[in-house]
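Handoff note, outgoing to incoming analyst
You'll be picking up this chain. Sequence as last confirmed:
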Amino acid sequence: MIGAFAAWWLRQMRDVLPVRLRRSRAVDALIVAAEPAGLALIRRRRGQEGRLGTLPADGGAAALRRLLPRGTARRVVLRSETRLLQRDVTLPLAAAPAIGRVLHYEMDRLTPFRGEDVVCDWTSVRHDAAKGEVHLRMWLLPRATLQPALEALAELRLPVACVEAATPDGQVRTLRFDRAATATPPALRIGVAACAALAVLAAALPFVRQSLASADVEARIAALRRPVAEVAALRHDGSAGADLFAAERVRLGDALAALAAVTDALPDDTYLTEFALRQRRLRLGGQSLAAAALIPRLAADRHLRNPAFAAPVTRSDTGHADLFAIQAELAP
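Most recent structure output, in case you need it:
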């Protein structure tokens, strides 16, 4: 692909070189020129041309082998003395990817010849994007002028790669056989390769994105492992602490449960000034209109055991209530 593009680019650059430099940079080849006496054989090597001799019209393969020294390039170029026909052509810009095929099919409209009756080559002059046009310069040579030489070379089994001929302004140009009909433009090949690469990329992109997302998730999980471990440790410590707290509450007694039991047992005319719980022993102090009735009420509660006065009952300063101090135990 890169080699084809480079060859195309070199052909385009060749058009702007002087004739002398262009010939000196010509590719090594065996040049065959039709002459009245037969086919002149010329060897071009490193830009230099040397005549090998003339192959008579009735000469065969043996005569050809005698004229060709070893190391002669097997790329055969047919040199024509007939001047190339030249014409400027304007085509729609949409035809740019397949100019060769378009020229082949439109040859009978653009010239007096059919596409298969000429050897054709072209170069792009300019692209007019505003008008949607591509401007070309086309050169062509009728195959009829080359037919005798082509037939002789076919008998000698020498396939011709291209034709060299002079343009109307005297510049030598190389025309490749059947380029218009079969060649695929380098730009089109590059475009096809780019499309194929994009297709492969589009097919692989979901897998690449999935792999990157998976790697990102793994990284986040790895970053969260340490905090999660710390939380689990704290949770374990917390549950152990809760178990310890429950055990201590059973051993020492539940103050809230005791307060709820005392509140339910005491009548509304009684209020507490002291409430203490130590080692499941409960001490109550306060005032009541009938302190003597408190002991049976507390004994009737299932959460309390052995209620008794811890001190004698006395009258308050106002003489309307009894002052009491009671002790009891919390039931297991």
